[in-house]
């Protein structure tokens, strides 16, 4: 029996934006853990300090063009089961995230 492909979605966002983003990706199917427990909204958050400098053609939600911006952010990671789920979760992330270009990563996971 073939198990559905699993992915890990990792993204970074300003702390006040996290509740809305998490709600959106969970509604898209992220954070559902396979197994008999029926766990949903599973994830892990760490806090850190992000930085960026918007380029000349940027339209930043936070900060100013050409100026280095530093702010407290959360890193959030969650499981996505199935390629369709991870694609929908990334689309929800991009739609909800306040940044012009959200920072995110998707990792394909292996079963052992």
TrEMBL record:
Residues folding into a coiled coil are none
**Which InterPro entries does this chain map to?**
DUF34/NIF3_sf, N-reg_PII/ATP_PRibTrfase_C
- Name of the molecule in the record: ATP phosphoribosyltransferase
């Amino acid at each position: 029996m073939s198990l559905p492909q699993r992915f890990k979605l990792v993204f970074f966002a300003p702390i006040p934006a996290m509740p809305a983003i998490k709600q959106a990706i969970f509604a898209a199917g992220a954070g559902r853990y396979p197994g008999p427990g029926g766990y949903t909204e599973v994830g892990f958050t760490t806090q850190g300090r992000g930085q960026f400098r918007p380029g000349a053609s940027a339209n930043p939600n936070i900060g100013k063009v050409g100026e280095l911006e530093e702010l407290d952010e959360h890193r959030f990671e969650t499981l996505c089961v199935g390629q369709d789920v991870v694609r929908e979760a990334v689309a929800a992330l991009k739609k909800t995230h306040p940044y012009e270009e959200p920072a995110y990563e998707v990792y394909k996971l292996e079963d052992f």
